[in-house]
Design goal:
The protein has 487 residues and is an all-alpha fold. Helices cover 72% and strands 0% of the residues.
Length: 487
């Protein structure tokens, strides 16, 4: 094996990953363990709820028809398979790096680096996509309360009537400021916001079900099963974020138990609520409501409530809840991205500025601001739909890597502590990889082109910077024979 190939395949040992997370040999401030099961579960729910219901539902119904309910079931099943893999790995490797760290311990440094950039794509683009829809609901609230809305040029996505999306930029930078201030404060604010979000969505379902019409489901699959599976690939975006739970590995008490439980609870709650809201919304929709959202960016759930109640009060509550809840999605997803980059910096694969922890706040403040400014620019200037599909792509590829990591770690580290083991092994990891690969195949050709271009850029960055600055390479050079490097 040549030197470059050897570098690509070197693995970071499990004991080294865990020791780094515990701060062995580290000087200076560290991340603080301040979360328990309840707040971590709320963090997971917050990171997911809002993406699918407040945005993707409206854009997917024209593709799948009422069969979008089945699309959510398909996407949820794939996410559940991936979640089982995450649960096993989170118990064995309770660190901040999530999928990146799992791949580093099993698939090698080169693959881990590419997976990390899939995560950067997943989190960064997900934040941007959700932030873009924030301005639409902000306009609903300001119109109902004051009769004033922001001009489309500064409140709509580029490509949908907008030039620069100012509200999207504002919400990203506001969340960045909160994250830089402190994890305790961020988690507390998030806990309040996610309770508001849950209440608003339950209210929507309760009101919409009073006007439920079964005939709205008559043409269940106007574009056949192909439309439903194509929509499943798109609505998979609505499950992006549950893996953010595993990025909190170094800020959670008793992570080997807490992270797996929070992952499972998050997925159960989110899937049940998605299906409930989808059924209620389709059953109560005014004729053509979802088509209008796809064409104009109309806030479709609010318009459904206005149609059902005959007044704007319930719609105002929903829109206000959306403004609050999308803020929490942005907050938590930004949190996940900063922790991925924090782990990569600790391994020497990105510049060290990403691992600097503020002595007073115990947060990677510089990391947060760099990520926040970059994401704000993306949210403000890039068209929306391309962002959503790219997020789904990055997530699906990361899930394939998680499934592969389960299989490889079972082989190379059979005695590692695993509080939870994937059932029906190896069937579940194989099904996870196959299902994710199929959903990725369903995504548009443009998405594949953009994604492959992103991976090419990541590979160039690794060859130019990462492989030369890798902490494993430095350790191997210091120790001569490189006893700590597994190939």
């Amino acid at each position: 094996m040549g030197p470059v190939a050897s570098q690509l395949c070197r693995r970071k040992p499990l004991d080294s990953i865990v020791a780094d997370a515990e701060g062995a040999g580290q000087e200076g401030p560290r991340l603080e363990r301040s979360m328990g099961l309840g707040r971590l579960t709320l963090l997971g729910i917050s990171s997911v709820l809002g993406t699918g219901i407040f945005f993707v539902l409206g854009t997917s119904v024209p593709t799948a028809g009422p069969g979008v309910v089945l699309s959510f079931v398909i996407a949820g099943t794939v996410a559940a398979l991936a979640a089982l893999c995450y649960v096993e790995l989170a118990g064995a490797i309770p660190v901040a790096g999530s999928t990146y760290s799992y791949a580093y311990a099993s698939l090698g440094e080169g693959i881990a680096y590419l997976v990390a950039w899939c995560l950067v794509l997943e989190y960064g683009v997900a934040v941007s996509t959700v932030a873009v829809s924030w301005g639409q609901y902000l306009n609903e609230v300001s119109d109902a309360l004051f009769g004033v809305t922001l001009p489309d040029a500064i409140s709509q996505p580029p490509g949908a009537g907008g030039v620069v999306n100012i509200p999207a930029i504002v919400v990203v930078l506001a969340c960045t400021a909160l994250l830089a201030r402190g994890t305790r404060e961020s988690v507390l604010v998030n806990s309040v916001l996610v309770c508001v979000k849950l209440g608003v969505l339950v209210m929507f379902a309760a009101v919409a079900l009073t006007a439920f019409q079964a005939d709205r489901f008559a043409d269940f699959a106007p574009h056949g099963m192909s439309g439903i599976t194509a929509a499943a690939s798109a609505v998979f975006f609505s499950y992006v974020g549950f893996d953010a739970v595993s990025t909190a590995g170094e800020e959670v008490r008793n992570p080997r138990r807490t992270i797996p439980l929070a992952l499972l609870l998050t997925l159960v709650v989110v899937t049940a609520l998605y299906i409930l809201v989808a059924v209620a919304g389709i059953g109560a929709q005014p004729e053509g409501a979802f088509a209008r959202q796809e064409a104009s960016g109309e806030a479709v759930l609010a318009s459904i409530l206005t149609s059902v109640t005959g007044s704007g009060t319930a719609a105002l509550v929903l829109s206000a809840g959306a403004v609050v809840s999308i803020f929490s999605v942005v907050l938590v997803t930004l949190y996940g991205q900063t922790r991925i980059l924090f782990s990569m910096a600790r391994d020497g694969l990105v510049p060290q500025v990403f691992r600097r922890v503020d002595r007073k706040r115990h947060t990677p403040a510089a990391n947060s601001w760099i990520v926040g400014v970059a994401v704000a620019a993306l949210a403000g200037f890039v068209p929306l739909q391309e962002l959503a599909d790219l997020t789904s792509m990055g997530t699906l590829i990361a899930f394939v890597a998680v499934a592969a990591a389960v299989v490889v770690l079972r082989r190379i580290a059979p005695d590692a502590p695993r509080p939870f083991r994937v059932p029906l092994y190896p069937l579940v990891p194989v099904l996870t990889a196959a299902a994710c690969g199929y959903l990725a195949y369903q995504l548009p050709g443009l998405t594949w082109t953009l994604f492959l271009g992103w991976l090419a850029l990541a590979a160039a960055l690794y060859l130019a910077f990462g492989r030369r600055r890798s902490a494993l390479r430095t350790t191997a050079a210091d120790e001569g024979a490189g006893d700590r490097v597994q190939v």
